[in-house]
Amino acid sequence: MGSGDNRGAERRNAREWAVDIGAFLFAACFLVLSTDQVVIEPGTSGTALALDQLRGGLACAALFLRRRRPVELAVVLLLLEPFSHFMAGPIMVALFTVAVRRPPRVTGYVAILAFAPLPFVLAHRPDLDDPRTGSALTYFVLLAATVGWGLYVRSRRQLIASLRERADQAAADARREAREDVAREMHDVLAHRLSLLSVHAGALEFNPDAGRDQVARAASVIRESAHQALQDLREIIGVLRAPETGDRPQPVLADLERLADESRKAGADVRLDLEVDGGLEAAPAVAGRTAYRIVQEGLTNARKHGSDSGAPVTVTVRGGAGRGLTVEVRNPAPSPGAGSSARVPGAGQGLIGLAERALLAGGTLEHGRVDGDFRLRAALPWPGTAPAAAPQAAPAPDTTH
User: Fold this and answer.
1) Are residues 138 and 274 in the same domain?
2) Predicted confidence (pLDDT) per residue in 247-295, tens digit
3) Which long-range contacts (CB under 8 A, 24 or more apart) does 17-23 make?
4) Do the domain assignments include residue 229?
5) Is residue 64 in some structural domain?
6) Which of 86, 179, 225, 302 gives the lowest tally of CB atoms within 10 Å of its CB?
7) Domain total of the chain
8) Residue 277 sits in the same domain as residue 151
9) Strands across the sheet containing 269-276
10) Domain that holds residue 92
11) What is the pLDDT of residues 367-377, one digit of tens each?
12) Structure pTM?
């Protein structure tokens, strides 16, 4: 491991210190409780036994290094095991640490070293009644259980980390989608209102000799549009501040008449051609809302980029259950090179946002010049079954001769 890992290991938090102390106490208690089960070779002096126990205690104390050097610690303890009868507890803790904190390949190498004496023990065909045989087999069973438990803990931690990462990514995606939804909503709503403001303000600026009635009418539209823009902005901000209280009311297809009236008050010549099975109220909410936003953006673009503020804008809506909903907005396109300094500037994001809206609704959007007009056309799904055609009457029999 690099120096960064070492510095991180030195700065243990309270939980890590508690875990390390618990590991030390486990190894120490295992040493004390298994003392009576350790088979002492005949002729072993009391001094040698005390030194053996001291080595076991030092091995327990060395476990505080397991976070910095888990593999090295495990290898050293395994190499010292033949010279001490009290290494089982520290070795189990060290092997568990390696299995949890290191890749399975490294764990496998350390496990091979740990189980290397087992073939030699079995090769000598030990007597099962010999206490030393039972002690050795118990030792290897404990090592196997320790490695298996460590690998399980490692896999579980990786699973939890993966799930947490997916949850964080999902939350980030949700926040990004929410920001995009709010951006589209603010663009669609405010661009429409502010374009009305700009058109009338521009008319007042470039027509200073307008009569009092015209000025009053333009000022009224400006005031109403500004009030509506502030109201829409307040509603959007309210949703952002308290999203759990519910979404703001969304427009439907039946609101197209109101939208067209607003543009007509601003001086636009908006012509509606609506033919929807069952009436505008019958359109699905998603398709109706998307169609409304498409028409709204089309009218805004006509004011911004149209060849003439008084040129007609034709809005055509056709559709029904089972055959989808088609929305088309057409207005005369400006001639190449034509422009006016009074035109409303655009951010260039409106059509991109509409394409995203149409895609989210399951439809498609296309735009461009057609026969001298700028056309904005969308096809949106309308699930259902189209009404069956009326049966045709059978032809009358021919009685002429």
Assistant:
1) no
2) 556 788 898 998 888 888 777 888 999 999 988 888 888 888 889 888 9
3) 20/63, 20/64, 20/66, 20/67, 23/63, 23/66, 23/93, 23/97
4) no
5) yes
6) 179
7) 2
8) no
9) 269-276, 312-320, 324-332, 373-380, 364-370
10) 3-169
11) 888 888 888 99
12) 0.51
